[in-house]
Amino acid sequence: MKLLNSKKKVIFLSFLALILLIAASFIYYVSDYYKADYTAQAALKSTDLYTVSNNADFITFTPKINTSTTGVIFYPGGKVEAEAYSVLASKIASNGYTTIIVKMPFNLAFFGSNKADGIIAQHSEIKNWVMIGHSLGGVFASDYAVNNQDKIDGIIYLAAYPSADASNTTIKALSIRGSLDGLTTSSDISDNINRFPQNTTFITIEGGNHYNFGNYGAQEGDNNSTITREKQQNETLKYVLEFLENLLN
């Protein structure tokens, strides 16, 4: 009996040690993330063109002029601080579109894939919604749109592609990637081309890379761009605005 109890104790302690090891590894993994740079931090201040509300769940850029009834919900890339996308978001808002960046638990969209629900519920003034997602955020922005086609009118993939089949949706979509992207390659797009919504426009920004869609420095595994971050974001903005303007046509 003592031997049996001793074995049970060893098994229990081994299992507990394994759980603690997994927990410690997870905490270490999520604590090492990409932080917003000074340019992104500066964009978090209200201006003559938009106001900023920054709380524990969302960063909301509300335009002051030419306000559209189309709104944008932005899902950040994996392990990237939400604030890192404030430059691009602020430029979209400056053109009249309410733009809301979602703060994901542990900076991973996997743990907050349905957080768009809260945004939509709180903004009855917005009649049409577009999901934007960068990298891993694009995967879950796509999933949300596919699962909520009654709420979402468009999807914009930034260096991203659907992991689940979105080809049967009638939702309009836009795919933008940089030609030098080392993390979402041209092969990744072509290998998953049949999963995109049928009404998808594909854009490649020459000289662009993966991390230039946000403002969080360089990213491991990516290639250096041959254009500036500002140029890549301005080109992205141009295509995003064209998409938003023609969304309901």
CATH superfamily of the largest domain: Alpha/Beta hydrolase fold, catalytic domain
Tell me the series of helices and strands, N- to C-terminal.
HHEEEHEHEHEEHEH
Estimate the global geometry from the Cα principal axes. globular
Q: Strands across the major sheet, in which order?
A: 1-2-4-3-5-6-7-8
Tell me the count of domains.
Answer: 2
- What Rg, in angstroms, do the CA atoms define? 20 Å
Q: Please state the second-level CATH architecture of the largest domain.
A: 3-Layer(aba) Sandwich
The name CATH uses for the topology of the largest domain is: Rossmann fold
The end-to-end distance, rounded to whole angstroms, is 77 Å
**Strand proportion:** 15-25%
Structural class given helices, strands, pairing? alpha/beta
CATH class of the largest domain: Alpha Beta
Per DSSP, the total helix count is 7
- Strand segment tally: 8
- What integer is the average pLDDT? 92
What does this 3D model show about the protein?
The protein is α/β, with parallel strands linked by helices. The chain folds into two domains: 1-32; 35-245, Alpha/Beta hydrolase fold, catalytic domain (Rossmann fold, 3-Layer(aba) Sandwich). The protein is 35% helix and 20% strand. It is built from seven helices and eight strands. Strands 1-2-4-3-5-6-7-8 form an eight-stranded mixed beta sheet, sandwiched between helices. The longest helix has 30 residues, at 2-31. The mean pLDDT is 92.
